[in-house]
Amino acid sequence: MNQQNKIRNDWSIEEVRRIYHMSLLTLTYEAAHIHRQWHDPSTVQVCTLLSIKTGGCPEDCAYCGQAARYHTNIKVKPLMDVGEVIACAKRAKESGSTRFCMAAAWREVRDNRDFDKVLEMVKGVYALGLEVCCTLGMLTADQAKRLREAGLSAYNHNLDSSENYYQEIISTRNFNDRLNTLEYVRRAGISVCCGGIIGLGESAEDRIAMLHKLATMPSHPESVPINALARVSGTPLADLPKVQIWEMVRMIGTARILMPKAMVRLSAGRSEMSTIEQAWCFLAGANSIFTSESEELLVTPNPKLTEDRAMFELLGLHPFSLKENQKLDLG
Ligand code: SF4
Q1: Is residue 105 lining ligand 1, measured as CB closer than 6 Å?
Q2: Contact (Cβ atoms closer than 8 angstroms) between residue 222 and residue 262
Q3: Which of 18, 48, 230, 270 is least enclosed by beta carbons within 10 angstroms?
Q4: Is ligand 1 within 6 A of the CB of residue 66?
Q5: What average pLDDT values come out for the chain (331 residues) when binned by 10 residues?
Q6: Active site residue 88
Q7: What is the model's pTM?
Q8: Helices (H) and strands (E) in the chain, counts
Q9: Which residues pair with 300 in a beta bridge?
Q10: For residue 45, how far is its CA from the centre of ligand 1 (angstroms)?
Q11: Which is the catalytic residue, given 47, 193, 194, 281?
């Protein structure tokens, strides 16, 4: 059964539910088939994620070790210097990354000197020929425009979960705030990176609702990160059970079928996955991973670069080249 060979934004919730609940082998087979229609299954985009400002965040996201109110072991670090960030981006490019993502633990962007510094970082990374992504919290329309003018390719702002479950995990902002920022980003001509996290205590229906929301946006996010909760000691969700690999495969496969053209990014949680488990995720349509020099994805563990290289070699995968990057439609 061929699910789809065109982009659809009119998925019904019943259709999403049916795909999500297909038997795992059928879902993976269908997703792999669609993946091959839209992407080269042997290439995986390697993105480097750098925390440019760590911890001390006023928000209360229940999964996050960077929220100031939780007693975690995260060391608060101020905004990095522009030169340090550019040097890190250069090293990322040399090691095979084609996308460089800068994350700041802010509730929202303020129009101050820190934002001016971030704009300089964006310009510097753009000049290296890398895709530049930022995740800085909520934005105004004007801030989105300024980021675009500085050369920003993409902005990450995850839905995290379903609209219903969102209020269970975050009380300091609401789901509509999320959608507003995404709208400003899109209108500024920046591509949207938007996905979610599983393992927050949500139900299968919440996961289906989140995927439905993403797949019925006016245009699909160009990039859809699928994260497994990284349980951080000291946060309210620290004692939740580990996400099972089959739940990740199901999420990735459903995302691939619903949003065939998107980059589906196997994000947080890889450090707890074996090579075989990650191979299942690639088979189900994931075509991107994150790396970082510090072997941390923001503040949680991430595999070593050498481990990822060995995995690519074993699975016959190769990272996107910068040329392939330029072929991406970032509009
Ligand atoms: S997820 Fe982002 S906004 Fe939420 S507490 Fe962490 S750093 Fe702050």
Answers
A1: yes
A2: yes
A3: 18
A4: yes
A5: 74 98 98 97 92 95 95 92 96 90 96 97 96 96 98 96 96 95 97 97 98 97 96 95 96 98 92 93 95 71 82 91 53 32
A6: no
A7: 0.92
A8: 12, 12
A9: 297
A10: 25
A11: 193
